[in-house]
Design a protein that fits this description.
Helices cover 27% and strands 19% of the residues. It has four helices and six strands; from the N terminus they run βααβββββαα.
């Protein structure tokens, strides 16, 4: 299996953080829990299959409930439309902010997702403005089209790889 990715809309991420106190970046850690539980969301799966992942947060101090859609081509988790209902207990001293949305009808299913070792977490990102030559942009757009991906993502991955290589020197 090729690398599995997490995708989300930054506007929805901000709204989810405000509503539930958990970012999508944090929510993706539920999928790394070796003992995660996957359930089909029977109430919200009319247009596409939706699921819940119940798994530990990064610190292992609380359980996250994440509503998601899984798309196998390309391999991606897409945090679905609307609030995903991620709740987390950050520490024993902080109050939990629960969603007022009921889970609704769910059905436990076999875990069909890639193993936690196969998952590639999405990194937190900072938006920047950069001026590139027209030639460079044209090159990345052409290559991205061949590989069915966004050219900005390709540039970001190139820069991230460069940084990783420089850190090992």
């Amino acid at each position: 299996m090729s690398e599995t990715n997490f995708e989300w809309d930054e506007g929805k991420n901000t709204a989810n953080l405000r509503k539930h106190g958990v970012s999508f970046y944090e929510a993706q850690h539920a999928f790394l829990d070796e003992n995660r539980v996957i359930a089909e969301d029977l109430n919200h799966s009319q247009s596409e299959q939706r699921y819940y992942c119940f798994g530990l947060n990064q610190e292992g101090t609380g359980v996250l409930t994440v509503r998601f859609t899984y798309r196998s081509v390309p391999f991606a988790f897409v945090f679905s439309v609307g609030a995903i209902g991620a709740e987390a207990k950050r520490s024993m001293n902080k109050q939990i902010r629960y969603s007022d949305e009921p889970l609704g009808e769910v059905k436990l299913i076999s875990d069909f997702l890639p193993s936690p070792k196969e998952l590639a977490l999405k990194n937190e990102q900072t938006k920047v403005t950069i001026s590139l030559s027209s030639e460079s942009v044209a090159f990345f757009k052409e290559e991205a089209k061949k590989h069915h991906m966004q050219y900005q993502k390709m540039i970001r991955q190139l820069l991230d790889e460069y940084v990783a290589q420089q850190k090992t020197r």
